[in-house]
Amino acid sequence: MGNSNETPYRLIDHASRRRTNRRRFLQGAAGLGAAAIAGARVIVPVAAQEGDAVVFWTTFTDPDLAILKGMVETYNGQTQSAKVELVQIPPAEVTDTSKLMTAVRGGTGPDVYHLDRFVVAQRAADGVLQDLSEFEGGATFLDNHIAFARSEATYDGKPFALPFDTDARALYYNRTLLMEAGIDIAALDPANGPATWDAVKQMANALNQKGPDGNYTRMGFIPWLNQGWHYTYGFSWGGEFFDQAACEVTPDNAQVVAAFQWVYDYCKELGPQQVSAFGSPSMQPGFPPQQHPFITGTLGMQITGDWMINQLRTYAPEMDYGITFIPVPTAGNESATWAGGWSMAMPQGAKQPEAAFQFMQWMSGEPGQRIYTKESAHLPTWEALLEDKTLFEERHRFFSEQLLPIAKNRPPLPVGAKYWDELTAAWQAVYLNEAEPQEALTAVKERVQSQLGRFCPVTIEG
After folding, report:
1. The CATH number of the domain covering residues in 44-166+340-401
2. Gap between the Cα atoms of 16 and 10, Å rounded
3. Cβ-based burial of 167 (10 A; exposed 0-12, middle 13-18, buried ≥19)
4. pLDDT tens-digit profile of 139-196?
5. 111 has a pLDDT exceeding 70
6. What is the CATH code for 1-20+169-338+413-462?
7. Dist. CA 149–CA 147, nearest whole Å
8. What would the DSSP string read from start to end of 128-182?
9. In angstroms, what CA-CA distances link 155 with 152, 165, 322?
10. Type and span of the H or E element at 246
11. Are 243 and 411 in contact (CB under 8 A)?
């Protein structure tokens, strides 16, 4: 646990500070371009606007930013309402809406904000978002979307966002890299069901290589990289994160603790700081996807989402790779995955509310989701589109047909952003071997439950 005098609270605070300091260092050393735009906004060129535009903020980067630009151009070419101005704000952690909240307080906020959907309930509870049931069709528009996306876009029985997309997570593997190392990849064939975590660990160890300085130059697998989050492992071990009947967050249940322990032990064997030195740069917001170690061929396996299909098509079109189920703790267990996604939300103080809502409906409805699904390899939340086989190439059908139907989702709580941040700080403390799983997760519960209590009872819609 490092310094034995540190409490779990201090350990988690320490991990959070380390994360911030490491991010600043890496941005300074490897991302002068990113640092140059910090605090600024970039207006993505679209057709010249007439009159007052609907201002749409997103933190997306390419290749998805280019898709959004094309969608806005398509919308502007057909709308009889106000045109849309697409503005890219600097990438940030998904729960970081500080720029938005500052702008809303100052009366300079956008009309539409691209918000990670699991954060909607908390931002609605904070009073940052407008109730969409006040607009014509706002109360019924969500009926067209899949159930968990409706739930995530709702707070206190009212819609505060429109679902934009969804996804699911899987294990990607570089066939060429594994086979060149003499690894039998049959266990990773989805036709054979999910591999075990220990089998993945054994394969990964056969790929690990270090340079003369003792740092990794190639790795087989990093548990926490990309979409290897706390929820990923907790769900894989059969854990639950919220008890609605008791109105309690449950990060400390036995299965979640066991999942954290497996990751703690995995990183301990390889050297947590060495693993972090190899993997952390690609976890920074705005990191260039073409430089990701999986894309450059220095990482054998990773957990990520269906959007990676488009990134690989764009940046590594020659790679021979496979996609399979997220591994399981014990052979014979059923694989678990989870789904998230983004939403279109209207901040308080929007200057073009009616025109903004029309744009939100188009983006989140059948026209917009059809384009985004096809071009980005994300999944639609517009339920009818899931039946349209023409939208999904073979690899993407694995997500739409086999993973999305079994996907879990993060509990959409009025403290959902707080919960994510506390879990993330604990997660980092654990995989860096700076905190023991049980103590770290107990601290998460204490911190989050103290804020959740004032909202109880919490009813999750859908």
Report:
1. 3.40.190.10
2. 10
3. buried
4. 899 999 999 999 999 999 999 999 999 999 999 999 999 999 999 999 999 999 999 9
5. yes
6. 3.40.190.10
7. 5
8. -B--GGGSTTTTTGGGGB-HHHHHHTEETTEE--EE--B--EEEEEEHHHHHHTT
9. 8, 19, 38
10. none
11. no
Name which of 104, 98, 68 is nearest 86 in CA terms.
Answer: 68
Shared fold status for 1-20+169-338+413-462 and 44-166+340-401: yes
Higher-confidence position of 335 and 15? 335
How is the chain split into domains, by residue range? 1-20+169-338+413-462, 44-166+340-401
DSSP letter string, 276-300: HHHHGGGGSTT--GGG-HHHHT-BS
| pLDDT of 458 | 93
Reference 346, options 129, 105, 61, 137; nearest CA is 129
Residue 84 token pair: 């849309």
Q: What is the pTM of this model?
A: 0.88
The length of the chain in residues reads 462
* Residue reference for tokens 């290749």: 63
Q: What is the mean pLDDT of the chain?
A: 90
